[in-house]
């Protein structure tokens, strides 16, 4: 069966995917030809968000849920380049992801990483896992990374509850960084095709609107950092980089603080 993490790996040019993943990815790309651009920009957002959180806000602990298969500049690599003592816990529901992570995502010896098999839809299991307690100090600020994972939680109440549970366990000064697929920038015919149920794998995610994503943040009392909720490629772009058009990305990105 196709899995989002392996499909994403394929769009990024990786090798850790199966025929079912490639078939699903190609079917989506046939409808939305810019999907590889979207995948790359989503990944670049993660790097910029981690750098900002580490350099500007002093975050040294990260909880990366729905981490996906390892590729360049994973969360702990970006954070530990700035401060080698940074601690990161990775969470994913695909055993293949965690097998690769344990083999490839080696922490700087001055920091620490851990890997938890769990699902965002069961946040309580994440928080009670002993490996989390052994790696992160929940009495100090933590950045929760929900990068391209919330759109696989179809029900708004369930998505809200996942954020509420995770952020509720963390102290003030913690952060939530997220990216989320959207149909806001897509031509109506492409949006309709992706939600028709006829494109293999496309129905696995919920492309929420700006208003829906804003509600998830507001309902949990989170304060957006500048420039707010925006197209992921336009969130604090690197100097000299011209972001691609919004309709080629169709992913929102934001970082918000728990007051």
Proportion of residues in extended strands: 15-25%
Number of domains: 1
Strand tally, please? Answer: 8
Shape: globular
SSE ordering: HHHEHEHEHHEHEHHEEHE
State the CATH superfamily name: Vaccinia Virus protein VP39
Residue share in helix:
40-55%
**How would you sum up the major sheet?**
8 strands, mixed
Oligomer: single chain
* Mean pLDDT figure: 92
Q: At the third CATH level, what is the topology name?
A: Rossmann fold
Keywords for this structure?
259 residues; Rossmann fold; 8-stranded mixed β-sheet
Explained architecture:
There is one protein chain. This protein is of the alpha/beta class and 259 residues long. The protein has a single domain (4-257), classed as Vaccinia Virus protein VP39 (Rossmann fold). The protein is 41% helix and 15% strand. It contains eleven helices and eight strands. The protein has helices spanning 4-11, 19-31, 35-55, 75-82, 95-104, 123-127, 130-135, 156-168, 188-194, 210-219, 246-249; strands spanning 61-65, 87-92, 112-117, 143-147, 175-181, 223-224, 230-231, 251-257. Strands 1, 2, 3, 4, 5, 6, 7 and 8 form an eight-stranded mixed beta sheet that branches.
Fold topology:
Elements: H1 4-11, H2 19-31, H3 35-55, E1 61-65, H4 75-82, E2 87-92, H5 95-104, E3 112-117, H6 123-127, H7 130-135, E4 143-147, H8 156-168, E5 175-181, H9 188-194, H10 210-219, E6 223-224, E7 230-231, H11 246-249, E8 251-257
Parallel strand pairs: 1-2, 1-4, 2-3, 4-5
Antiparallel strand pairs: 5-8, 6-8, 7-8
Helix pairs in contact: 1-2, 3-4, 8-10
